[in-house]
Structures are given as C-alpha cells and as structure tokens.
Amino acid sequence: xxxxxxxxxxxxxxxxxxxxxxxxxxxxxxxxxxxxxxxxxxxxxxxxxxxxxxxxxxxxxxxxxxxxxxxxxxxxxxxxxxxxxxxxxxxxxxxxxxxxxxxxxxxxxxxxxxxxxxxxxxxxxxxxxxxxxxxxxxxxxxxxxxxxxxxxxxxxxxxxxxxxxxxxxxxxxxxxxxxxxxxxxxxxxxxxxxxxxxxxxxxxxxxxxxxxxxxxxxxxxxxxxxxxxxxxxxxxxxxxxxxxxxxxxxxxxxxxxxxxxxxx
Length: 264
What we know:
By secondary structure, the protein is an alpha+beta fold. The chain has 5 helices and 16 strands.
C-alpha cells in the first residue's frame, strides 16, 4: 500500500509521459502591418523557445505564407519569324508571399518526403495549373492526374518562382533562423512594399533527428489604412461605380490639361 503524505503537505505529482516531449513556442513582435501611402516594406521579428527536458539537438523551420493569388504567365514562341506570346498558363494555389527560413539547409533537417508533405522550401511549394490537368484511368487500377504541360511543367513552375523571387515575394534562407541562447531563437520576416494585403500564416516547426516533433502557427495581418483602404474597398466592393468615377476623373484631368495649355 502506498504511503500517504504527511498532514499539511500536498501529494507528490504523478509522472506525466508527455512531460519529456519537446515543445516549441513562438510569437511575433507585431501581428498587424498597416499599409499607408508611404509604405516601403516592413520587418517583423519572430522569436521563440524550444522546451526540451532532454536538451536534444533541434532544428527550427519557419514557413510564412501570404494570401493565395492566381499567377498568369506566357512564354515567347517563334512563329513565321516573329516572336509571339504562347497561350497563357494560369497557376493557382500559389501564395502571394512565401518565405522559408531555417537554422541550416532544409535537406539536412528532414528527408524529401517530409519536406514535400509540409511544403517546406521553394522546391516543395505546391503550385499547380488545374486548367492544364485531366484525369485518366491507367492499367484499370486507379485514376491518374496528367498535366497537358508534360515535361515542360517544371519549366513553367520555375518561371513562376523566378518571377516571385525577382519581386522579393519568395525567399528561402538556410540561415534565417538563429539561436541566440540555449533553446531561444529568432527569425526576421521581411515584407516588401508590394506584399499583398490579407492574412498571413506563419508555421513554426521543430525537428529532431529528421522528425517533426512540435509545431505552432501564428497569423499576421497586412491591411491598407486611410485613403488607400477606402479606395481599395471601393474598387473591390463597387467596381462599376469605381470604374465610372475613374473614367470621369481621367476625362476631367485631360480637359483641364488641354485648357491650361490651349493656345489662341
């Protein structure tokens, strides 16, 4: 029979199996970015800590995704001596902003399948062109999704990534997460001036020995304020009136300019 604790003392806590499991925690210095007319970009700092009683070696990966935006691209093709744009391909499911940061190269942190499942890194980011896909039944066993882009799919996809990288909307940094002390880490999220508005999601992932052991998610909101927000809402909620007003303003501006420079 187990001995009872002396009177006046609390009972000893029972051991909990989960207590030895590593846990990650993180927060953003600013969860809301206000976009004004003089907005030139912003830097958000994410900081956090790894709680692991066993003090095992850990890797931290931070994935930041912005609102999804369709991307329409074309490719130049030569026909009859002329360079013409090919039929456009529309990619969907691509985030308007994407950043993958880690304390060392992703390939050294986890294996290919895990990175692909998590969409960790530009090579594993899920981007597809659904209008180019069809479903076929092969071998009478199961349906297979086939892209009409064929082997060129990767060239088209890489073109999307290059365009986003050039606009500083996509980035992958193998040294974007730094441990500032035992178990404490930080990462910076650089938002360019052209970053899309909306709700962003930051996934903070903890890996040990190539295995995902803990994860946290945080949200970041980028929104327009002031006159920019009023015009943005007007254009999206009442596009017809906004278009008519824009046309009227353009006509009035043209008339004023011609009147100012009119000669007798």
